[in-house]
Amino acid sequence: MSGCQKAARPLTRGLQNIQQSCFPPMAMRSFTSTTRANSEAAAAVAKTVPDLDPETVTNPKQERALMRSGVKLIGSRRRRAALRTSNNIPFEQLPYQCFQEARKVLAADREEKLKAIETERLRIANVMARDPSTYKGGEQQKQSQLINMQRYLERLKILADINDPIIKKRFEDGQGDMNKPIYRYLADKKWRSYQRLLILQRINQLNIVPDVLPHFEPTADVRLAFSRRNVQPGEFIDSRVSEIPARLNVQVYDKGERLVSVVVIDSDVPVLENDNFTSRCHFLAANIPLSPTETSVPLIKASKDTQLIHPWLPPFAQKGTPYHRYSVFVLQQEPGQTLDVNALKEKVARENFSLRSFVDKFGVEPIGASVFRSIWDEGTIGVMQRHNIEGWDVEFKRKRIESLKPKQKPRGWEARHASTKYRALWR
C-alpha cells in the first residue's frame, strides 16, 4: 500500500462518519408509490366491554361501571367473591349435613304454621258467616273480632317464613316481593332501625314539629330526589337544582293500594307588616295511587284534571332572610275517598297555607315526610325571574333595636373629666 493511500484512509473514514450522522438510515427511504406508515389514518378500534355479572363482580372499577349503567349489585363484595370461586351449588343443596338437618327442622316448623294459617282462615270464614245479632255488641263486636283475627293471621304468615334462609337471602339481595307480608316486615324492620330515626331527628332539630304539625309519627319511608340528585333529610339544596319538580320514592309497609296527597310547604316566608313569618304551599296534589310495589311518585307527572291542585313553585329564599325549611308530607286519604280537585283549587290558597287545617278539614293522615333547606345563592335571582316571582330585587336587613334602658348621667371618671379642657383624654 502506497503512502498516499495510508494518508487518505483516515480522511475517508471521517467523511463516512459525517455522512452517517447527517443522514441517518431511518430518514432515508427509497422511492415508493404508497404512503408512509405514520401518515396513514389510524383505524378506530372498538373496545370490547366484557359482560359483567352483578352476582360475581368484585373489582371496584367494574362495580362502578355496573352502577353507572343502572345495574344494581347483588349482595356484598365478600358474598360475590365466594360465589365466583365456588362451584355454583344451589343454596338449598349445600353439602353440609348440619345445614340440611337444620333446614328439615325449619321445614317442619313451617308446616305447623301453614296448618295454623288454614285453621285461622276457616275460623274467619265462620265468623263472617255468623249473624251479628248473636253477639252482645252486635256488628261492632263482630268487626272488632274480625280485625283481631286478621291481625293474628298476618302474624302467622310472617312466622311461617321468618326463619327461612332463602327468604333472608332474597331480601338481602334486593329480590324480595313486597306483596308478601314477610318481605314487608323485614323492610319495615330495617327502615325503623336507622332511616326512621334519622328523619325524626331532622324533624325535631328543625322544629318542623310543632311549627307545621303538632305531632307526627312516620309509618312510610319517603326519599326525595331532584333529577339524579338524591337529597338527604335537612340538606341545603341549590335553587337551580330545586327549580325542577321533585321526585319521591314512597315505600309503605302495609298491604293494599291507597290514595295519597303530597304537599310541599315553606315554613319561613317573611311578613314585613307583622315582622313575622308565615307559610306558603309550593306544591299540592291529591288522589295519587300508592302501594307497596308502586313507590315512585314523580311530581311532574301529576294529572292536571284529577290530581294537581297547585303546580310546582320553585323554592327560593330572598336575600337577607335566614334559610327556609321546606317540608314534604305524604298524606294518606281515607279508604275510598277521592278529593275534588276543582273544589280544592278554590278553597286552598298558596299563601298562609296551614297543614293542620288541611289535615283536620279533609280527614287525611300524615304517613311520611322529608325535609330540605334553601338559602340565597347566586342562582336565586335567575330562578325568580324565570318564574315571574316578585321580590328578586328586595334585600332584607336586620332592624336595629334601640336599648330600652334610660340614658344615665356620666359618673365617676367620666363626670370628673367631662370639661372641654380634658378633650384630649376623651378618646
Automatic annotation (TrEMBL):
It is found in: Mitochondrion. The keyword Signal does not apply. Pfam families: PBP (PF01161). InterPro entries: PEBP, PEBP-like_sf, PEBP_euk. The keyword Transmembrane helix does not apply. GO terms for cellular component: mitochondrion. Keywords: Mitochondrion. Its main location: mitochondrion. It comes from the Eukaryota. Component of the mitochondrial ribosome (mitoribosome), a dedicated translation machinery responsible for the synthesis of mitochondrial genome-encoded proteins, including at least some of the essential transmembrane subunits of the mitochondrial respiratory chain. The mitoribosomes are attached to the mitochondrial inner membrane and translation products are cotranslationally integrated into the membrane. Belongs to the phosphatidylethanolamine-binding protein family. Mitochondrion-specific ribosomal protein mL38 subfamily. This is Large ribosomal subunit protein mL38. It comes from Scytalidium lignicola.
